[in-house]
């Protein structure tokens, strides 16, 4: 059967070829909508010259690092340092205490277990956005374990509230339940205590789940905005998210400098995602639907 | 040794329970308590009964904020799911180029919301040389005010939210599509079902359980939208993007009316609990 002819005498393309063309065009549209804006951001950061406000570049013109260096002069260095410290320490503590709790929930039977699990899951309904006001008052009352009079304007205040998170506890508990009990019983016969079983048998077997929790924990802590907004009062305590918003509210900075700060906020998350994509996607489909 | 065996699980749970106690349960309970007081620093709190709730209820700013929040939650969740489903149909499959495209499209999801808001604030610059307006100009359309006009600000915020969350829904749907038994498609094809019928009678029913959960939990989460609003518009212009949480933040932290802000937060908390329980109960009933 021959392809129909259009009014202009052009032959309609073959159906299969036509489909490929449409598909490729749609692919280009997807990239244009979801990837192009991020590309434009990077291109603007590395472009020289004084753009008008609101003006961005599609390709770096007059390649320069001056936007980046200016951004670093206005607090991006300190912001990165603070975010790295808060995320590093916070993530380590978060994964550790979650694994401890998961061990008790998955491997022990005790009175009140169901209630504890319910209490932990119910904290998902108490995010910072809902408890911001009283949380601010609590932060002002609790003394800093590192020595200050309160958690306000302290690293402890930026870190401790994000250490307890229900998601990794939930994920790790589910994972630990799948580990055969026989392994644990054999070790117990040999006289191993709970701590040894936890560190030498359970934890090494949980490596994949721990990796997933680490990726999610990283993004959760790195992206924090409302908590630092409540805690950090002096600029030297600002995390990266606060540095970005404070740079954007100062009228003197050009688009290039402001976007340089945003780019510095974005690059670590993108690198973590690209490096650990498999862990990320598996975690998303297993546990985070509840998140 | 064995006498203290009962204590072992509690020792393992202690750090988490202490943290949740201080940073989740204490603020939640204290917030409910403060809802009934006029909070006066240094002079002691004054019991006011339900006054904070009635004041909040009659505040036109809060009323419109609730409207914006509901509209924003429902529209962005529905639009993200639709767009995510379309993306999943287009980009599903094991081929290498599809994986690369999915990865590129997913980058907005992992980018911090603050950076996304900052980027779109620049892209949506209202002047005619703003990036998006330049594009619209090439298409022969006039410059839009986007975030700077009360008429288009909420829609512009939603646009940014959908941009960030649609690829997330895409990955959920890609997994859902991969889980559908291929034989069902073949059987449908043999029965003479076209592409549309296969989508309507095989694909959509198979994805329904995932979809309902994504939608309901997304809407519940949408009720506490804060960061993107606060960074993009600060609730303005003229209160046109004020939401429940930006309202409580301003009342509580900036105007220092802590009792009123606590009352609003308490209602938001109770609504969240109610909706979450309903969702879980409804899902359990479906499964049983």
TrEMBL record, chain A:
PROSITE patterns listed in its UniProt record: ABC_TM1 (PS50928)
Annotated CDD domains: TM_PBP2 (cd06261)
Coiled coil regions, renumbered to chain: none
Keywords: Cell membrane, Membrane, Transmembrane, Transmembrane helix, Transport
InterPro entries found in the cross-reference section: MetI-like, MetI-like_sf
Every ABC transmembrane type-1 domain range: 80-276
SUPFAM superfamilies attached to this UniProt entry: MetI-like (SSF161098)
Transmembrane segments: 20-39, 80-103, 115-138, 158-176, 197-222, 256-276
Family designation: Belongs to the binding-protein-dependent transport system permease family.
Protein name: Carbohydrate ABC transporter permease
Organism: Actinacidiphila epipremni
Taxonomy of the source species: Bacteria, Bacillati, Actinomycetota, Actinomycetes, Kitasatosporales
UniProtKB/TrEMBL annotation, chain B:
Keywords: Cell membrane, Membrane, Transmembrane, Transmembrane helix, Transport
Pfam family membership, one: BPD_transp_1
Membrane-spanning segments: 12-33, 70-91, 103-120, 258-282
Subcellular location, principal: membrane
Subcellular localization(s) per the UniProt record: Cell membrane
Membrane topology: Multi-pass membrane protein
Domain of life: Bacteria
Keyword Transferase on entry: no
ABC transmembrane type-1 domain: residues covered: 66-279
InterPro entries: ABC_transporter_permease, MetI-like, MetI-like_sf
Family, as annotated: Belongs to the binding-protein-dependent transport system permease family.
Protein name: Sugar ABC transporter permease
Species the sequence originates in: Actinacidiphila epipremni
